[in-house]
Amino acid sequence: MELVYYPGCTLYQKAKGLDRSARACAAALGVRLVELPEWQCCGGLIPQVKDAAMALLGPSRILMDAQKIGQPLVTLCTFCYNTLKRADRILREDDQLRRKIEDFLDEPYRGVGVLHFLEVLRDGIGWEKIRQRVTSPLDIRVAPYYGCLLLRPYREIGMDDPEDPTIMEDLLSALGCPVVDFPARTDCCGSFLSLWRPEVTRECVRQIVEKAVRLGAQVLVTTCPLCQFNLDRYQQAGPSSDGRTGRLPVIYFTQVLALALGLEEGLPIQREHQVSPLGLLTAAAKERGSGDDQREKS
C-alpha cells in the first residue's frame, strides 16, 4: 500500500515522536508513506470561514498537489486532518467557491481522498492483521482520548460515531492493552484557549485527568499534538479532588502501536513530555520480560 503523507508543521517541531513512531509503524505494516513534496502549512481550521476563498487557498493547494500523485492523502495531526478533510468537502460541494479557487491556483480540482492514519489501520490493514503482528503487548491500563476535532463535525468528517467512538478502543485492544471505559474521551482539552485563557484549559485538563485516574488509567492515549501538549503541560502537581495523584503520562496511539510491534521508535522523546512515560513503559517491559521468562521455564 502506498499513500501520500502530509506531516504538517507540528510533527516537524513539537510532536516529532508522533511522526517518528508513525513512519516506523507504517513501514513495519507494509504501508509506504510518500511525503508530499514541498508541502506547506494547512492553515489550521480556516475552512470554517466558508465565505472567504482566501481561507481555503492553503489546504486547497495541498489537496491539489496530492491529486497530482494520484494516491490518497494521509495525515496524523488532528488539526491538519480536520482542515484538509473539510476543505475537500467544501470544494466538492460548493461549485462557485471551487471555481474561484481553481482560477486562482490555475488548476482543476477533481478531489482526493483524505485519510487519518487510524483509518488506514482500521480499513486498509485491519485489526486482526495488526493483532497477529504484535510481539510485545503492553499490559498497561490505557484511557483513549479523542478530543474535539478528530470526529466532528460528523457530516464532514465521518470517521466514527462522534459521541460513542470505538476506533481507538479497537486498536488498543488489538495491541493487547486493557482499555478503560473512559466517558471523557471526547471532552475538550481547552484547545487554543491555553494561549489566552490558560485557567480554562487548566480546568478542562483537571477534569479529564481526574476522571481517568479515578477509573484506574495509567496513561492517556491521544492522536492530537495540541491535546497531548495541553493534557501533559496543564496537569496539576498536587493530588486530585478525591485524594488520588492526578498525574498521568500522555502518549500518542502510534507510540503504543510501535512498542507493541517491538519498534524502538515507539519510545517517547523525553523533551516532549512534562509527565514522563518512560518509567511506566520501562516497568511494563520488565514485567513482560519476567512473564516471558516464567513461561519459558514452565
Strand content: 5-15%
Low-confidence stretches: 291-298
Principal-axis shape: globular
Distance from N terminus to C terminus (CA atoms, Å) equals 41 Å
Mean pLDDT: 90
Question: How many H/I helical runs?
Answer: 13
Taking Cα atoms only, what radius of gyration do you get, to the nearest Å? Answer: 20 Å
Biggest sheet: strands, sense, closure? 4 strands, parallel
Give the neighbour order of strands across the main sheet.
2-1-3-4
Q: How are helices and strands ordered from N to C?
A: EHEHEHHEHHEHHHHEHEHH
User: What structural class do you assign from the helix and strand content?
Assistant: alpha/beta
Q: What's the number of extended β-strand segments? A: 7
Question: Level of helix content?
Answer: 40-55%
Structure notes:
The protein is of the alpha/beta class and 298 residues long. The protein has helices at residues 16-28, 57-69, 78-93, 95-105, 117-125, 127-133, 154-157, 167-174, 193-196, 198-214, 225-233, 253-260, 278-297; strands spanning 2-6, 32-35, 73-75, 114-116, 142-145, 219-222, 250-252. The strands form two sheets. Strands 2-1-3-4 form a four-stranded parallel sheet, with helices on both faces. Strands 5-6-7 form a three-stranded parallel sheet, sandwiched between helices. Helix 1 packs across helix 12 and helix 2 (57-69) packs across helix 3. The longest helix is centred in the C-terminal third of the chain and has 20 residues, at 278-297. The radius of gyration is 20 Å and the shape is globular. The relative contact order is 0.14. The model is unreliable at 291-298 (pLDDT under 50).
